[in-house]
Amino acid sequence: MIISLVLVLFVTASGTVATYLYDEAASLAARLCAGACIGLAALGLVGFVIASLMGLTPLAIALTLIVLAIPLLTLRDTTRWRVVKEDLSYSSKSFRRLLLYPSEAPIGYVLFYAAISIILWKVFSRAMIEVPEGIYTGVLNNFGDLPFHLSVITSFAYGNNFPPEDPTYAGIPFTYPFLTDFVSAIFVRCGADLRQSMFIENFILAVSLVGLLHRWALEMLRDRLAAAITPLLVFLNGGFGWVLLWEQAKQYDKGLSAMLASIPNSLTILPNTTWRWGNAISTLLVPQRGMLLGLPIAVIVFTQWWVSTEKPGESEKGEEGKGKKRNRKKRKEKTEVATMPARPLVPLFPFFPFTPSEKRMVAAGIVAGLLPLVHAHSFIAVMAVGGVSAVVQRRWRDWILFFLGASVVALPQMWWSTHNSAVNAATFFDWQFGWDRDNDNPVWFWLKNTGLFIPLILAAIFWLGKKRLVSQRLLLFYLPFTLCFIVPNLIKMAPWVWDNIKVLFYWWVASAPIVALLLARLWHQRGTSRILAVGLFVCVTLAGSVDVANIVLRDAQYQIFDLQGIQFAEIVRRETEPRARIVHAPVHNHPIFLTGRRSLMGYPGHIWTHGLEYRQREGEINRIFAGAPDAAAVLGKYEIKYAVVGPYERNLGSVNDQFFSRFTQVGETGGYRLYKISQP
Question: How far apart are CA 129 and CA 138, in angstroms?
Fold first, then answer.
């Protein structure tokens, strides 16, 4: 694990230094958050390219690090190195000043990030739980997703899955965005176990996302309180699900413990109902690891979009801007650290002298180009919003540079993903009005699922005070993001319509600063307005807060693999070749997914949502275990090397033990048997 942590520090340092190429105004903390996300994404992409040529070997990892060290070479430039030293010096002196002369604002930030970090640490430590009885998860929505991600990680770490086949559907090119899991596979190869490999990445990305949302909102709103509220609105999102607590309140006569125990695991998404929105942490960031990396990368891009539209002197407006003027003077007097140069430091590309805004847009494009193999829906959302923003803003040169930068990095990934793909694209798109509302009235459906969030957006936009709350510049910047709400309410963008949330959530993320600005304005007015601000904040976040509290405070554990299954997985890894194909029962939590071996077919629900046809292969698997006349022919058709006969296979129906007795048994434990298939 120590090597993995050193690796994270290295790629974070490289990504942080890269931010000095385009983002002169960022604080060191904001650079570290961006650097961690950029560094991890680059580690996955560069590492995958090199590993595709030589496997995921120590040499491949070493070569990857050499490539990722290139941004560090830019520190040879004396101007940039001076600015980096000034940032480090200023941050060090600020920390010492905080310890010696604590003040309200810095202490507030420290407590804010400390509390969030503790909560996120607890949440992601429960994403995968290892105990003597087996492997569990403490997040119910992760019950189906965790085995899939483990199968991807182990396929790269233990199965030499290059060129990658779908680990749950052998023989089919693996085009599902996998870079987040590939990074975890690198950590496994560096000595981390499966749980550590995911936790390291998850926790760093989640904390970085908080910092990036905070910085983005601060740049847009120039209001410290609104900037702090923004990540809370994103992470604690929910709707009116908290009204379900009234049902539990009726049980108070049975005692407080009985009432608390009866609270549902989720107040934001309930099976077999039209409560479908879900909470960001419990339904998106923990189960869907691709979005955990895709979302902060997108926020980095959005921040550069905004700052690139800033005119000289505009950053000095607002509460935060005025504070910057005072702070620059204090910084120079108290710390004797020179302020950041206003001119560009060193051109992003020495032979092409870009203006500051052009430089930001090129960099934003390059960062956005990392997304296709990280999280495809995030890439779609970013590029669609960018296209509309280009038309609205009419900064044609800037936006052309953005799309060129994105194309250079993204197009090779897109070609690779779609080349010889078995995905049926027709299953992804269809007309469906109102997302996942079933028979609900669409207005009622969205009011129920998002609570007062949409009314608060409208209230902020149409604020009737002496001065507009949402400036014209902010409104024009925000409007293209409404496409992320409109389009998924008209078109099904995945075989499972609920997956539209992967685009819908970007509307929520972009709207959160608008709502935060309204709540902050009410708070600044004092008096009864403060009570209203608190009440509205609680109303918008209570359901999501209960969902997160259920993860953090409850000891609920949902078993995925039992001890016998884990022991059997060790036998499989020991007795089989890394790229062996294995037939087993098509369930989501089969022990084979811990081995890295290629499964003939995993859980049909996962395969269907990926746009693959599974029915024929599912029927053939049933015939194999039944020992049908064509069973041997089916085994030969798919070049199956091993078969598993265990509890899950017997749950399928009848298993023809006489048929499997013709093959050599090479391992057995806890009711699981591993047979080596000898082909005629």
Answer: 7
A 10 A CB-CB count for 312 gives 8
Q: Three-state SS across 618-667?
A: HHHHHHHHHCCCCHHHHHHHCCCCEEEECHHHHHHCCCCHHHHCCCEEEE
Q: Which helix (H) or strand (E) holds 135?
A: strand 134-137
The CA–CA distances, whole Å, from 539 to 237, 300, 449, 508 equal: 10, 29, 12, 16
> What does pTM read for this prediction?
0.94
Strand partners for 352: 349
**Tokens linked to 90:** 């200023």
Residue 666: pLDDT above 60? yes
Please identify which residue in the block is written with the tokens 């995925």. 560
Phi then psi for residue 25, to 5 deg, are -95, -5
Structure tokens at 295: 């979302």
Q: How many CB atoms lie within 10 A of CB 440?
A: 17
Assess contact for 26 and 162: CB atoms under 8 A. no
Q: What is the C-alpha to C-alpha distance for residues 553 and 257, in angstroms, rounded to an integer? A: 13
Question: Which phi and psi (to 5°) does residue 313 adopt?
Answer: 90, -15
pLDDT tens digits for range 167-196: 999 999 998 999 999 999 999 999 999 999
Contact 606, 139 (CB under 8 A): no
Q: What are the residue ranges spanned by the domains of the chain?
A: 560-676
Task: Pull the structure tokens for residue 218.
Answer: 């601060």
Name which of 307, 302, 221, 365 is nearest 25 in CA terms. 307
Q: In this predicted structure, which of 260-269, 316-325, 401-410, 587-596 has the lowest mean pLDDT? A: 316-325
Within 10 angstroms of residue 603's Cβ, the number of other Cβ atoms is 22
* Residues near 180 by beta carbon (within 8 Å), at least 6 away in sequence: 44, 201, 289, 290, 292, 293, 374, 375
**Three-state SS for 423?**
coil
- List of residues 6+ apart from 249 with CB closer than 8 A: 259
Examine the pLDDT at 129 and tell me if it is beyond 70: yes
pLDDT score, position 311: 75
Structure tokens at 645: 């006969």
For 136, 139, 293, 425, 495, the CA distances from 283, given in Å and listed in that order, are 17, 9, 15, 25, 18
Predicted pLDDT of residue 678: 82
- pLDDT tens column, 553-574: 999 999 999 999 999 999 999 9
Highest-confidence segment of 61-70, 88-97, 249-258, 645-654? 61-70
Q: What is the DSSP string of 193-220?
A: -HHHHHHHHHHHHHHHHHHHHHHHHHHH
Strand order in the sheet with 581-583: 598-599, 581-583, 642-645, 672-676, 664-669
